[in-house]
Amino acid sequence: MTDSFGARGQLAVGGTSYDYYRLGAVASQAQLDRLPYSLKVLLENLVRHEDGVNITKDDINALINWDPKAEPSTEIAFTPARVILQDFTGVPCVVDLAAMRDAVAKLGGDATKINPLVPVELVIDHSVMVDKSGSNDALDLNAKIEFDRNKERYAFLRWGQTAFDNFKVVPPDTGIVHQVNIEYLARVVFGKETGVAYPDTVVGTDSHTTMVNGIGVLGWGVGGIEAEAAMLGQPVTMLIPQVVGYRLTGKLSEGVTATDLVLTIVERLRELGVVGKFVEFFGEGLADLPLADRATIANMAPEYGATCGIFPVDEATINYLKLTGRDEDELALVETYAKANGMWRHDDDPDAEYSHVLELDLSTVQPSLAGPKRPQDRILLSDMKSSYQSHLKPMVAERSEKSQAEARLESEGGPVVKSGVAQLAIDGESFELSDGAVVIAAITSCTNTSNPVVLLGAGLVAQKAAARGLKVKPWVKTSLAPGSQVVTDYLNKAGLMDDLEALGFHVVGYGCTTCIGNSGPLKAAISQAIQDNDLVATSVLSGNRNFEGRVHSDVRMNFLASPPLVVAYALAGTVDIDLVNEPLGQDQDGNDVYLKDIWPSNAEIQETLAASLNSDMFKTRYADVYAGDARWQGLEIPTGKIYEWDNTSTYVQNPPYFEGMSLDTDDIGEIKGARCLAKLGDSITTDHISPAGVIKPDQDAGEYLMSKGVQQADFNSLGSRRGNHEVMMRGTFANVRLRNQIAPGTEGGWTRHLPDGEQMSIYEAAMKYKAENTPLVVLGGKEYGTGSSRDWAAKGTILLGVKAVICESFERIHRSNLVGMGVLPLQFADGDSHESLGLTGLETYDIEGLQRGAKSVSVTATTDDGKVTTFQAKVRIDTPKEWDYYEHGGILQYVIRQLAAA
């Protein structure tokens, strides 16, 4: 390393001496005081990795002299200390590494050079599904089904553990990746492993990697493609970001939860617009904000659109590390380092400079939910009933129109309008299922299940409800998916697990479950009633994602809420209720019971917390975290450094990215005669592009699996099949709620093949275009690619033959992923859209003027009758390193050529 500033020095911690890089040697105290905490972490990263090539003295000076108001323009190379994966996105990462070893060997290089160069940890948490719920055997049964379904994938991951250095796997049924990260994996400050003290930084293949920002670790979600590059020593290129400061003051009021707080923050930051920016929380309100609340806020950075939402290291960080079982040497290193390098928060610190400052008095936060299909659409609990009813009206109108149209086709009599009500009898109990019915009530996801205050709050609500004789409605599927096994320990110690189970909230698994679409099946009669009567069924979940079609295909509205409110809505059985003023039900004596009657006080929750949670729980649960159970240990795995691909596997296949690859790159070239595969609207999420949920037998992916002899019961989910490109290509743009304007009147993965106009699935059309050597484009609106950092949304796009995506704006991670897979991201000029330009998607498209460094290109759309529309589009390849990747056809090809050439 160059160390132009002479920053390397010695740091004594107890009886141990560490090397470290002193920020005081590269900038004055005044310069450091004005820098936000997150930029100090980036500055140290640059100073430590300065090599005169990828990182220069000028880069460091640019960060020291950061202009908070300027538009980002200076590229830097950020080198994360480690990479974290979950299994849905981790399996394809390991598949790609295995495929890269094959490719390097074929090009004459040393295949073993394909190896993680930084610590990589994968937590298996995305595969468990709620097949069984509401019973004492739900956890064991779901775990068994999960293992049986995913044995091939898990054996492959265990092979990866033996074949690759610096790669560890946390086995299934341990916890959610982000909670395991903050409770065990996060170092906060590295040193013990390296002899050099430096801040822990991380990139992860899940959007909510940002949760670790709550303990002062700078990290964010990236696509699997970027993560693989980071594993292989490639820095993450980025522009020095703007940093939005969020000043917090005051304290939360009685009865208000961290979930209410984060939904308020999400709404306000979305209104401001923070895509591509860092958000940093500061102010006197931090003094009374527990670390679990900070983690909740940091977790939902993807929902407010920021790259990260970070809190500085302070006393709360140390207390949390101590609670979660870190040893005294670690605690001393974190505190000593943070104070020595100006990264410790003091109450009297001068305010840093920020690009923009928002303020929130915590005492003004009110109980809230968000929905019915976006996490930023906050609803006051007091307004919930009226909000639901306003969203219901257009759905009822649409149902009425559809029913009348069906009646005209099927009957000579008058129209039969579906009423939104169904009569059912299940297990001898008769009831009425109507619009607004809560059919899923799930305490789930890393957002809230890391927070003992809201989980104990949910347990106390259940306890008080059970004492009054209240019961969950029979149509509600209830579930509890804790973020770690420690949650079960403190709920049991508090005596609240029995009360939760009395209402059907049995533990169903230690994983993401409902929040990622692994909600499992509804009872057959309920599902059939919803479909037959076109009912507007709802879910209430304590997660972070409620996009259309994500939670369950039978559920039209999804609402995010705190765990105690999830319990309350399970008791009510409907969202068509004012929980502030209307009773939840009646007690044994026929008296009305209101939410306020069973809601615990803050003091009651804190008293329960103090008596039920301790450090020994964490030390015990994480003592042997990588060992796994007998099933995990008994897996048969292949040996050797080159993976032995099984051509009959429906889970793991060698992807075709490197077929025909040589050491030379092709010219970028122009895109001529392209057809539009899909013309889409605003807020198209990565769930729309590459859904993770169920595979249906009448979809292309289901038909493929059946052709390979897989029974429908063994389909598993699209998320679990990400190691097989054949399945994932067929699942691309196959979300049941996708509306492709090229195929009006359809919902799902449909398009029209052009120029003949024949309607078919998007996959079928893409393969037909491929046979005709016709390149493809996709047209979109605003916020294209929001949601999860799903690399398959980019991988599927390129494998379908899409060369360019043209839209009004991109979500940060997805745009980067497209470049990383060799897809050209283009953005309409300001004020333009496919609507304003009159584009129908039926034209042919020529894209001209594309060359390295180009800021814009000319796009010509020509209709079959000769009408020509020409417009300019911005090229969203934002950095020189991204141009390197695009010219090579993607990040992986770039790395392979570098290694093979070396």
Descriptive report:
The chain has 902 residues and is an alpha/beta fold. The chain has 4 domains: 8-78, no CATH class; 82-108 and 115-366, Aconitase, domain 3 (2-Layer Sandwich); 371-388 and 439-621, Aconitase, domain 3 (2-Layer Sandwich), CATH 3.30.499; 662-690 and 732-901, Alpha-Beta Barrel (Aconitase, domain 4), CATH 3.20.19. 35% of the residues lie in helices and 18% in strands. It is built from 31 helices and 34 strands. It has a 7-stranded mixed β-barrel with strand order 26-29-30-31-34-33-32. α28 links the parallel β29 (776-779) and β30. α2 packs antiparallel against α3, α4 packs across α7 and α15 runs parallel beside α19 (563-572). The protein is globular. The two termini are 20 Å apart. The relative contact order is 0.11. The model has no long low-confidence stretch (mean pLDDT 94).
